[in-house]
Amino acid sequence: MEKTTDLIVIADPDKDVQTGFQRLFGGHMKVVCFSESDPALVFLKQNHNTAVVFSCFNLPGRGGTAFLRAAETIVPQATRVMLTREKSAEAIKKTLNEGHAFLYLEKPCQSKDLVSAMETALAHHRQLAKERALLERTLAGSVKLLIDMLALFHPEAFRRTATVRKQALKLARQLGMKKTWELEMAAMLSPLGEALLPKQILARYRAARSLTEQERDVLDRAPAQSRELLKNIPQLEKVSDYLFLSARGYDGSGFPKDGPVGQDIPLVSRILKLLTDLWYASPENGPDAASFEALTINWRKYDPKLLELAKTVLMDDLPEARKKHIAQCYIRSLRPGDVLVDDALTESSHELVLSRGHMLTPTTIRRLEHFHQTSGVRQPIRVERHEVPEEVMIDTA
After folding, report:
1. How far is CA 95 from CA 13, 54, 75, 103, 107, in A?
2. Tens digit of pLDDT for each residue in 198-224?
3. Can you tell me whether residue 54 is helix, strand or coil?
4. Cα–chain center distance at 70
5. d(Cα 19, Cα 10) in Å, to the nearest integer?
6. Beta partners for residue 198, in sequence order
7. Residue 320: CB partners within 8 Å, gap ≥ 6?
8. Which residue range or ranges hold the Response regulatory domain (predicted)?
9. What is the Cβ-side half-sphere exposure of residue 36, based on CA atoms within 13 angstroms?
10. Would the pTM of this model clear 0.90, i.e. be above it?
11. Which of 6, 135, 311, 352 could form a disulfide with 51 if both were Cys (CB 3.0 to 4.6 A apart)?
């Protein structure tokens, strides 16, 4: 066989079988062996580029049939092969009907038969990968067209897609994510549920106004609406699940109330949660120090490693002036010691609320919050931000 970069996973406790695979194929491709089902599944979750999965019938753990069925969910493009001494019709039936195996080989298996089976399995995997790539390109074009059409009718909901997609890809590169198609689709489709929400709720949320418990519940359920719309579209099943969990906080807050917590939340969902909230906390020209300050207030809602990575990666593109000195803030991210660069004005009548040059204190920030709840204050607010001595932080208003 010619040398390739294909990754082959063997799940069989028989050391002679593992040695045989390494001897036959180790010099041509990467062969990784496991003696139980669960460690093999963990490996597959971290290596979606796996080409072929071999399993014995009586695999310790969940058994060979259940293992292959789980592998199909994790790495659908990998060819699944059962290699076993079981010759009963029942075993063959379970392997093909329940494990969805592509090939069934009986032990002991001659080397030439095993090589032939490997070549057939690899050819099947490459065909699946080729078909999926074509489908993904076609589907990506269709999704782009859909987003462009929806943006004509819901410009406020979909204007963040380009920014969030770009930021998501930056994080993906830093995280070493090799396949980003599902992440891109999820970023592009993330506002889909919001587009179906009442505009007054979205307007209040974007303006940092307080929401009633009922309004908050309606907003939180936007991901569920996205899942309902997308779950029946081929190749978007996982994307719909990622969107469904994209409002779930790392600490278990948010929607759905009985959803996963921490690292059990899919990585794509955690990225979307962080970047969506960052977008709402940022001024029109992108995130700045104050934007991340706003997220840090509720830091438990975000994957801590992702939050730190986002600060590093997304702040690298900003001029030093925006990083350290001038920040465009929403009221929720103002802090004592900030100095107003411009007059703080009302939203509609542009009446003066606080004049430029005013150093903010806890009391003046609270006054801005209360004024915004009743009359509205134009945001974002530009402030000059320095390291303020501790005595300046004392409220003297």
Report:
1. 18, 12, 17, 9, 15
2. 777 766 666 656 677 777 777 777 777
3. strand
4. 21
5. 11
6. none
7. none
8. 7-122
9. 6
10. no
11. 6
Gap between the Cα atoms of 340 and 355, Å rounded: 7
Report the candidate in 295, 302, 301 with the shortest Cα–Cα distance to residue 280.
Answer: 295
The count of C-alpha atoms lying within 13 angstroms of the C-alpha of 171, restricted to the half-sphere facing its C-beta, is 26
Residue with tokens 């900030």: 338
Tokens 């057939």 label which residue? 120
What the chain holds in terms of domains, given with CATH numbers, is 7-130 (3.40.50.2300), 154-323 (1.10.3210.10), 334-397 (3.90.105)
Q: 259 is written with which tokens? A: 């959803």
- DSSP annotation of 321: I
Dihedral of CA atoms 8, 12, 13, 16 in degrees, nearest 10, equals -70
pLDDT digits (tens, 9 = 90+) for 82-123: 988 877 777 777 777 777 889 888 888 888 999 999 999 999
- Give, as one character, the DSSP assignment of residue 248: B
Tally of CB atoms within 10 A around 283: 18
